[in-house]
Amino acid sequence: MKHIEKNKDLSFENKEPVFTSPIHVGRPNIGSKKIFLDYVEQIFENQWLTNNGPILKKFEQHVAELHNVQHCIAMSNGTVALEIAIRALGLEGEVIIPSYTFIATAHALHWQAITPVFADIDPDTHTLDPEAVRRMITPRTTGIIGVHLWGRSCKVDQLQEIAEEYNLKLMFDAAHAFGCSYQNKMIGNFGACEILSFHATKFLNSFEGGAVLTNDDLLAKKIRLMRNFGFSGVDNVIHPGTNGKMTEIAAAMGLTNLESLERILCRNKENYSIYLEELSSLPGISILKYDYSELNNFQYVVVEIDKACPVRRDEIIDALHNENILARRYFWPGCHKMKPYSDLFPHAGLLLPQTIDVAEKVMVLPTGTAMDNKSVKLVSKVIKSLVKNRN
Ligand code: T4K
């Protein structure tokens, strides 16, 4: 009933949804079924399903080469990659992170009895504001985890400077930043290490998966041990560890999708430029820009809807859902508002004005290989109609 009332203002009122089935933010980008099935044949032939198998090794090598980094240690998912990297770096006490990120960044610390301390973001980049990071440093701080949100890198140099000044460890959550660069150097080469996610919804997926990228030989060795219970050879455990291993079938999916990388990127770029062209002139609506002098994967079409827009962000999302367009608020309302952290820091929001503002403005639109020019134009048309009818 609520939606019917709202729809009085909309041009698509009382009609069947514009899309007959739901279109999602996060539909997987999937490569050739034939290539994948060839890998499945190999796996059956090898009778090697997990534990550092040949397909996993090939996947790690390809990902490392693509990012021009010495080591890629693949994991069962990005969260475990974060947890292991955090532990391998010896982080403890307090670690500074943004609140405007996926909950896994905070959980990977909290899970290990480390306190995530939320610093505010720069509203233009949606990544950590280095000055805000400085303000949150205490004698208990041991590290900083920057998040390259939407694949756009943090202010790496400034964070590095702060880390050196205060003798803190610096690492990056690069879950969104597969194939992206900062100052023309590939992500994976910054801080002590960076982690990737290959979740189904990511630019490159391996069903589930993640990885740690690093140029530090000793750290890589330690992380490899920790990924496999600390085993060094048979019957010999030399380090505490867990089970973070990626399976052969996951690595096969990763390799399959790597072969389609150009096609996926082209599709994302095309979708992005259509959205930009269609929506940029609407009042109070802007699309987050990507820096074309850097590499990016264009996996996220991030729209900011501010007060100049005659329709509120949540009204737009509701109306889009009525049309089967499952646009999303992302990282709303911020990690600091989620129970485990609001219990810890009930007043954290006082120091996070930009985080709160951004979380209230952002809407993410469907993109990826599940979309084509026609469907992107149709989504844009619905948004245009919503805004224009209210003007
Ligand atoms: N750090 C950052 C900054 C991250 O963004 C993430 C993960 C991590 C760390 C941790 O990495 P992982 O441990 O996940 O590897 C998703 C993902 O579950 C999560 O991986 C991702 N970030 C986060 C941003 O988004 P949801 O709750 O939005 O995903 P979900 O499962 O609801 O899927 C979204 C939509 O995608 C669905 O409505 C339908 C569609 N979908 C999804 C799946 C899984 C499909 O069409 N097919 C599918 O197989 O969290």
Secondary structure blueprint with pairings:
Elements: H1 2-6, E1 23-24, H2 33-46, H3 54-66, E2 71-75, H4 78-88, E3 94-98, H5 103-110, E4 115-119, H6 130-136, E5 141-147, H7 156-166, E6 169-173, E7 181-182, E8 185-186, E9 194-197, E10 210-214, H8 217-227, H9 248-258, H10 261-279, E11 285-287, E12 301-305, H11 313-322, E13 325-326, H12 339-344, H13 353-361, E14 362-365, H14 373-390
Helix pairs in contact: 2-9, 3-9, 4-5, 10-14
The structure holds ligand T4K.
Q: Describe it for me?
A:
This protein is α/β, with parallel strands linked by helices. The chain has 14 helices and 14 strands. Strands 2-10-9-6-5-3-4 form a 7-stranded mixed sheet, sandwiched between helices. α5 links the parallel β3 and β4. The chain starts with a helix and ends with a helix.
Task: List its traits.
disordered N terminus; single chain; 14% strand; alpha/beta; 391 residues; seven-stranded mixed sheet
Q: Identify the strand order in the major beta sheet.
A: 2-10-9-6-5-3-4
For the sheet with most strands, the description reads: 7 strands, mixed
N- and C-termini, Cα separation: 24 Å
Mean pLDDT: 95
Written as H for each helix and E for each strand, in order along the chain, the element string is HEHHEHEHEHEHEEEEEHHHEEHEHHEH
Low-confidence stretches: 1-10
User: Which percent band covers the strand fraction?
Assistant: 5-15%
Helix percent reads: 25-40%
**Counted beta strands:** 14
Structural class: alpha/beta
List all distinct small molecules, including ions and cofactors, that are bound in this structure: ligand T4K
Number of helices: 14
User: Shape, please?
Assistant: globular
Radius of gyration, CA atoms, in whole angstroms: 22 Å
